[in-house]
Amino acid sequence: MIGLVVVLMVLLGADASAPHTDMVPVKGGSFMMGNSGEGGDADERPVHRVTLASFFIGRHEVTVGEFREFVEATNYRTTAELNLDTATVFIGRKAEKRRDASWKNPYFAQDDRHPVVCVSWLDAVAYCNWLSAHEGLEPCYRGSGDSITGDFTANGYRLPTEAEWEYAARSGGRNVTYSWGEGAPYRNGRPAGNTRDEAAHREWQLNNYWENYDDGYAYTSPACSFAPNELGICDMSGNVYEWCWDRYGEDYYAQKTADNPTGPAVGNLHSCRDAGFACPIKAERVANRGRGAPTLAFSWGGFRVARSTD
Predict the structure, then answer these.
(1) How open is the CA angle 79-83-89, to the nearest 5 degrees?
(2) What is residue 12's predicted lDDT score, i.e. its pLDDT?
(3) Helix residue spans in the chain (DSSP H)
(4) Cβ of 25: how many Cβ atoms within 10 Å?
(5) Domain extents for the chain?
(6) What is the mean pLDDT of residues 280-284?
(7) What tens digit of pLDDT does each residue of 289-307 get?
(8) Torsion sign (Cα): 58, 148, 117, 103
(9) Helix, strand, coil: what percent of the chain each, to 5?
């Protein structure tokens, strides 16, 4: 099913009534990738210079409404719905696997404006190919399962690479800790993210949260509810984790791949960036790296799309 969807998506739903996709142009350049401050994890080092070509990235994470259009056009079933890997959701203060959990039922209330969650890397790839075909663009992905390949010369939608994601989160490579800058989640006096804050603390009594900051959402918030970063991109620190294209390599930074890196050639896990609504403050840093199996689905994880420039 998954492979069939990825290979044949170009044949499905290609018409002129494409869903609105709000993309932000990101001018290419060089930056220092990784954690240059105190703390952080070993996989965020060494800090190394990376040069990127220009690209486009979604202003916000793919929403429930946008994903619903895809599902209704294709009758697609996600990996969670196929039970390839049961989705993990918050139940009280615990994260638990539930067989009935999916993007339709993340165990908390959402509407079409919220970022879609409980979608796997494979689901995100399938969505990208459908959206490309739907808008008359060349799909980026071919193959199925562990054999999916990406064509970065295609003009269709794809997942951002880890380097592209971090560069965009840093507002074009600035040396900042969070997408909003430094300190508490404010930008120009406006709340700047759906993070582990007073609202999350009230819901779960968790420690390590932004005290005296209350974004009003214990779970996901509607896309672009908070101040964007300097490039006008929303929710790059907080709301949900976001799948990236790259296979995850703990020591990949040691290779110091300088130009348009796309991750290791082999690996069983894929990278994700950002941090979910209940993740510790440490995870909200733009240098923080996450990872998961390509079938993994969880209620604090979604994705946003990117495109190469023509």
Answers:
(1) 80
(2) 39
(3) 2-8, 64-74, 121-134, 162-169, 198-204
(4) 12
(5) 2-11+21-304
(6) 94
(7) 999 999 999 999 999 999 9
(8) positive
(9) 20, 20, 60
C-alpha 280/C-alpha 70 separation (Å) is 32
Contacts 24+ apart (CB under 8 A), 150-154: 150/245, 150/262, 152/260, 152/262, 152/308, 153/308, 154/308
In the beta sheet, which residues pair with residue 33? Answer: 48
Strand pairing report for 241-247 and 301-302? parallel
Coil, strand or helix at 29: strand
Q: What is the DSSP annotation of 73-134?
A: HHT---TTTTTSSPPEEEETTEEEE-TT-BTTB-SS---TTSBP-S--HHHHHHHHHHHHHH
Q: Which residues pair with 21 in a beta bridge?
A: none
Question: d(Cα 88, Cα 66) in Å, to the nearest integer?
Answer: 22
Q: Which two tokens stand for residue 121?
A: 């890397």
Give Cβ neighbours of residue 16 (< 8 Å, ≥ 6 apart). Answer: 136
For the domain bounded by 2-11+21-304, which CATH number is listed?
3.90.1580.10
